[in-house]
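Q&A log
Question type: sequence-to-structure
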Amino acid sequence: MKREQEWALGLGIAAAVLGAAWLAVAWWLPTDEEFAAWLTAEAEDRLGVKVTIGSAHWALLPRPVVVVNDFRTQQAQPVVIRRLSAQPNARVLLHRKLEFARIDIDDAVFPRNSMLAFPAKPGASEPDAGDGVLLEHFEFRNLTWISYSGIAVAYDGEIDFDVNWRPRHAELRRPGISPPFTLTLTREGDADRWQTRIHVGGGTAHGNVALKSATSGTMHLSGQLAPHDIEVASALSTFNRRSPVGGKSSGQMVLSADGKSVGELARSLHTHSLLSVNPATILRFDLDKAISTRGKEHDGQTALQELTGQMDTQNTDEGMRVTYTGIKARAGKYTATGKATIYHRQIEASGTLDVVEGAIGVPFTVSGPVDKPKASVPPGFFAGAAIGTAVLPGIGTVIGARIGGALGRIFKGGAQQPVAPTPVAPKKN
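Response status: OK
Response body:
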């Protein structure tokens, strides 16, 4: 439920264009070439961008159908539909009313940024079907969604609709992914409440979602999910993303959103999760190596006995912002606490690394691209540790590091440089 897809916008526009097309067919009976030209002009007027259509075909017998091939918008990242077929409901078509029995899309590409570039014309995004169902069944195969940051993910799925675009049953899948990903929604009677079943990363995240509508037209979406035994790295790789952490996660998630359309709900979606990963692994950072080389080297992995914290996600017009707070990790003799934010594929994190049950508090920061972040500690820490070693080996390093960390914060890690520890001669017997 945390992805900001605008399928409702594209589906609504497609239904509006096809609806106008079918009313034209019913009273005009054009040739396929005339129909393709008329459909191109109608789509350009609705979308506000140039459009090309390879071919279009309509038929009334044996059943009404429209088939559009090779639809493409003229944009930097074009919206592409290799094949779209639509079957109007013949029972109401002769009464100049429009209902679709089904719409099928095969092999399509929907870039989020291009979809948002379409002008929001009144009634274009979510046509009104009155008391009926404008669309009964929507099915798509190999529909690729491209996120704000350019990550492409392909889906299969289908939706059965009730009135007012309420899904009766919906399923979303990632084809060719192992372990499999499926998201299933099942409506509870006629209530605006759905049972949610999610399988991802070898685990589950079952729960429910509900929708409330105010007299102003604003809708409020709320829900609860219970992630259980989800392998974090596998779950993120399902959506072509890399995880910094591996391990099975369980916890609780609460989601909410507000808006006057499905698109606005998606763009405002917020989730709050309490998560626990035990045990866990930092996949591309060796803590022991980083400490022993004073941050110069850190390639490798770090095994964690415990990783807990809170995660908040917030959809925005420029992608999803992920914020971690109250993070606590334990790896052998080390414990760490901190916070982090990931946005625009950049990470900004800070925290404190404790050694010997809190005896050493080393402040650290992590920043840069999520694929290759940089970790650093204040130079004062190294200076303080060196001073302590010179005074009293072992325990002196602990005390000195505390002093050095404090000095580093006071001087904000300025021009202070690490100094080599002064060796202490062993006592003679």
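Response note: The first strand starts at residue 51 and ends at 59.
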